[in-house]
């Protein structure tokens, strides 16, 4: 099968809720990274076969196929199409998969994959809320077919995070220690300038430059211990959950033919891509099954992987995944994760992969594996190989 190569990857700094990027139109937010990607790679934008962006809650500024709109807003050729996809939290990671599959099939040569989310402007689950205002019930949990299969059971990411903590014996203290490490790692990475090369600074309306992630905090175990749980008697608090934020990210995926034709230098190769489903009521356990499948499929072991990115939707998700897979914390989310850096849903997949690629190069590792839990009990896994 033909190979798919990562040519470059770029992202905006992540803006906290109500922060630097809150007032930015989602199309302009995505356009910023698309322009930067084309400039950094030096590729003729007219040679791009497709633009695939992940985005959830595609209403308002994110409606009307924001991938297509963002490309046009960026001033790029109007003959290049765009498509917006929604695999919940894994939307832009799936965009990479679709891009790579297009290249590996031989039907495409240059594909942009990325994602965008302005969660300040359009809150999570906004599409469901708007639907209810127009008289529609909740899309899945009120479906007669859903009830026939799963019964009258609460479906909630918070409940799932709590169930995982209880089942895998992950204490609140365990999660708070993990969350503190996430913040400390992110702040250390920022101080060392580890993110500088992957970030495309944004010029704000007041003329100032936004170039540093806003979400990492100076916190402590004592501060975390003082927070009330999200559910009475529960273990999950805001401190051990990912932060609401705004960002965009993008990558260029190319075939061997495109590499030769355009004189490109690949930075990594897509070694493996897959997606698996799990129990949708548990919702967040998918990375366990998906990671085990990916390792079995490739013949690689945990010891063969130099870096891991497992999205920190909740600390319990990553801690349970580490227990099941044996992935050591020392190689997992080494520059912090969603608890510290935020989880801009549609953009997270390529945000994580952008950071993972740069860190793989910085440390000289060979393989890196990325996975994340996704709505509906799903999980993507991508393994990349540094070149």
TrEMBL record:
A single Gene Ontology MF term assigned here is: acyltransferase activity, transferring groups other than amino-acyl groups
Alphabetically sorted, this entry's keywords are:
Acyltransferase, Transferase
A Pfam family the protein falls into: Thiolase_N
Where do the Thiolase N-terminal domain residues begin and end? Answer: 5-256
Task: Return the PROSITE patterns for the record.
Answer: THIOLASE_2
- Domain Thiolase C-terminal, by residue range, is 265-386
Q: Which residues form the active site?
A: 89 (acyl-thioester intermediate), 343 (proton acceptor), 373 (proton acceptor)
Similarity comment: Belongs to the thiolase-like superfamily. Thiolase family.
- The name this protein carries in UniProt is Acetyl-CoA C-acetyltransferase
Species this chain originates from: Nocardioides psychrotolerans
């Amino acid at each position: 099968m033909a190979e798919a190569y990562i040519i470059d990857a770029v992202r905006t700094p992540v803006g906290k809720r109500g922060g630097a990027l809150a007032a930015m139109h989602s199309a302009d937010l995505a356009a910023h990274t698309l322009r930067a990607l084309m400039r950094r790679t030096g590729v003729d934008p007219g040679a791009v076969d497709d633009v695939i962006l992940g985005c959830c809650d595609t209403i308002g500024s994110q409606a009307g196929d924001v991938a297509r709109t963002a490309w046009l807003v960026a001033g790029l050729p109007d003959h290049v199409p765009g498509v917006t996809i929604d695999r919940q939290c894994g939307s832009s990671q799936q965009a990479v998969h679709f891009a790579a599959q297009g290249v590996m099939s031989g039907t495409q040569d240059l594909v942009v994959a990325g994602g965008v989310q302005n969660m300040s402007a359009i809150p999570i689950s906004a599409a469901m809320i708007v639907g209810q205002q127009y008289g529609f019930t909740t899309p899945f949990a009120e479906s007669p077919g859903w009830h026939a299969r799963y019964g009258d059971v609460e479906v909630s990411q918070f409940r799932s995070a709590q169930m995982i903590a209880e089942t895998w014996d992950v204490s609140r203290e365990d999660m708070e220690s993990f969350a503190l490490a996430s913040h400390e790692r992110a702040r250390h990475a920022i101080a060392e300038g580890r993110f500088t090369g992957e970030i495309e600074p944004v010029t704000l309306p007041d003329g100032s430059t936004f170039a540093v992630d806003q979400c990492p905090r100076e916190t402590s175990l004592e501060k975390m211990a003082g927070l009330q749980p999200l559910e009475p008697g529960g273990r999950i608090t805001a401190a051990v959950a990912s932060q609401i934020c705004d960002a965009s990210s993008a990558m260029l995926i190319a075939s061997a033919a495109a590499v030769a034709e355009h004189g490109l230098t690949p930075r990594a190769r897509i070694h493996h891509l897959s997606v698996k489903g799990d129990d949708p009521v548990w919702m967040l356990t998918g990375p366990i099954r998906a990671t085990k499948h990916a390792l079995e499929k490739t013949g690689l072991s945990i010891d063969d992987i130099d870096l891991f990115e497992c999205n920190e939707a909740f600390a319990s998700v990553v801690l349970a995944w580490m227990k099941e897979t044996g992935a050591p914390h020392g190689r997992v989310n080494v520059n912090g994760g969603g608890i510290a850096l935020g989880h801009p849903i549609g953009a997270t997949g390529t945000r994580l992969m952008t950071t993972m690629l740069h860190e793989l190069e910085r440390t000289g590792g060979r393989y890196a594996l990325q996975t994340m839990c996704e709505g509906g009990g799903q999980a993507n896994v991508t393994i990349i190989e540094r070149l």
